[in-house]
């Protein structure tokens, strides 16, 4: 039997100490991404109180990150192939560290927006490079499978633990929500170069579709910005129309660039797959409803009920049940009923969650809202994984990476649209009113955005119920 020169394989076929160290670094990076998003969601009311941000700007602080992530996700994967996985991973980690730190020193809303956008863009380069390094540092077989399972579990754990960490840090000072990731990133950056191996030569090769990435990012940014402008429909209507028109022009420009490029971010022919389109629409709607709901819940619990950041963290922790259910129950349900049916149930559970939470009032106890949190955790467990699976249904194996990149881009873009939608509707309904009753009513109306997104997502999934054969093939996979 031939042996590998890679330091990841020992005589017993187990991970070497260096391989385990490399896995810790790679898992640390994906953990960093998970806690970063979760902690910020908890700290939003404290940030608003300190910097005096409007609801629109507050939601933009979150959506700036996901738009940066979505806009550069496909480019990030391409960059790892061209410039080398290790080089891109470590460079992106350094940028993440720097701009997360800058966010902690922000004294104005625009400073936070810039910091979050660049941090999201850095994550878009770091995440695909980190996942690709798993294949470089671990040989195919049980060792790599184990590494991937640990990597995926760490991503889920990062979000759940980030809710608790966010509550603790926001109780001290919201700026620590930005400084804590700096400390972890600095540690990873110090040990990463020694532990991570990469078989790439380090020579730049291939072409880089920067115009396509710029057009895609600009189109998504303008679309999200246009939605937030709808909170005051009677003001500067012409400018709002111009924003949406500019977004449409950039979407068209992106398609033309990809069609003419010899090394496009997206091969347009892949969009002929009905399963891929269904997966991307479903992912966009699922993420939009999920992030929109979290934004509403955080404001409701802290600004209307007066809960502390720590209490809010613990209240949202029930959503983390997906980390337990997803690897145990979801595969069995998919094997029996197929991906599309399982995703459809996930959307229906999310719909039930948002419907129950619409009864929120000033006298609500945690017992009253716990069923909503539990239902959303179950919905996430049933929806997220299978959505990424059906994205590759009928797609050639050598384009699975592109299909996965598209569905992840849809998730991030959907999150930005959901946040912009609930912010715009909430601000429009509130107007100039400042009473707690008016604020509560504005949140109830804003909750219609997650409700509508979940209902539309269920309809999209229902159109795929007839594709039983494809669903079964992916279930087996």
UniProtKB/TrEMBL annotation:
Report the domain of life of the source organism.
Bacteria
Q: Which UniProt keywords apply?
A: Cell membrane, Membrane, Transmembrane, Transmembrane helix, Transport
The primary site where this protein sits is membrane
Q: Where is the Major facilitator superfamily (MFS) profile domain?
A: 22-469
SUPFAM superfamilies, sorted: MFS general substrate transporter
Q: Which residues cross the membrane?
A: 21-44, 56-76, 88-107, 113-136, 148-170, 176-196, 208-227, 239-257, 277-301, 313-330, 342-362, 368-390, 410-431, 443-465
Q: Where in the cell is it found?
A: Cell membrane
Using the record for this protein, list the coiled-coil segments as residue ranges, or answer none: none
* Topology with respect to the bilayer: Multi-pass membrane protein
Q: Which CDD domains match?
A: MFS_MMR_MDR_like
What name goes with this protein? MFS transporter
């Amino acid at each position: 039997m031939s042996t590998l020169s890679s330091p990841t394989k020992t005589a017993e076929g187990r991970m070497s100490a260096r391989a385990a160290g490399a896995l810790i670094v790679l898992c640390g990076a994906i953990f960093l991404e998970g806690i970063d998003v979760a902690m910020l969601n908890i700290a939003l009311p404290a940030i608003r109180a300190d910097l005096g941000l409007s609801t629109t700007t507050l939601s933009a602080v979150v959506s700036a990150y996901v738009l940066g992530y979505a806009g550069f996700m496909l480019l990030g994967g391409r960059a790892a192939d061209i410039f080398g996985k290790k080089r891109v991973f470590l460079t992106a980690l350094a940028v993440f560290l720097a701009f997360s730190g800058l966010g902690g020193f922000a004294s104005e809303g625009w400073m936070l927006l810039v910091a979050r956008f660049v941090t999201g863009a850095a994550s878009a380069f770091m995440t695909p490079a980190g996942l690709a390094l798993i294949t470089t540092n671990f040989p195919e077989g049980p060792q790599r499978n184990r590494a991937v399972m640990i990597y995926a579990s760490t991503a889920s754990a990062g979000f759940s633990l980030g809710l608790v960490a966010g509550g603790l840090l926001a109780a001290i000072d919201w700026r620590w929500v930005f400084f804590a990731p700096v400390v972890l990133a600095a540690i990873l950056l110090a040990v990463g170069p020694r532990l991570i191996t990469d078989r790439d030569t380090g020579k730049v090769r291939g072409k880089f579709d920067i115009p396509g990435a710029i057009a895609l990012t600009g189109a998504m940014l303008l679309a999200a910005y246009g939605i937030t402008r709808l909170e005051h429909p009677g003001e500067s209507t012409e400018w709002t129309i111009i924003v949406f028109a500019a977004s449409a022009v950039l979407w068209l420009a992106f398609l033309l660039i990809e069609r003419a490029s010899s090394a496009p971010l997206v091969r347009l022919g892949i969009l002929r797959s009905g399963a891929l389109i269904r997966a991307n629409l479903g992912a966009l709607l699922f993420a939009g409803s999920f992030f929109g709901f979290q934004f509403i819940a955080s404001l409701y619990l802290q600004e209307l009920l007066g809960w502390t950041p720590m209490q809010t963290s613990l209240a949202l922790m029930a959503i983390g049940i997906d980390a337990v259910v997803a690897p145990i129950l979801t595969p069995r349900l998919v094997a029996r009923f197929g991906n599309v049916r399982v995703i459809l149930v996930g959307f229906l559970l999310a719909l039930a969650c948002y419907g129950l939470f619409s009864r929120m009032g000033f006298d609500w106890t945690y017992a009253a809202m716990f069923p909503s949190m539990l239902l959303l955790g179950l919905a996430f467990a049933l929806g997220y994984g299978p959505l990424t699976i059906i994205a590759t249904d009928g797609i050639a194996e050598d384009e699975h990476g592109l299909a996965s990149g598209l569905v992840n881009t849809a998730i991030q873009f959907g999150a930005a649209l959901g946040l912009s939608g609930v912010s715009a509707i909430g601000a429009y309904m509130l107007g100039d009113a400042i009473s707690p009753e008016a604020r509560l009513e504005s949140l109830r109306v804003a909750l219609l955005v997650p409700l509508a997104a979940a209902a539309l997502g269920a309809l999209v999934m229902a159109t795929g119920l007839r594709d039983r054969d494809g669903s079964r093939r992916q279930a087996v996979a």
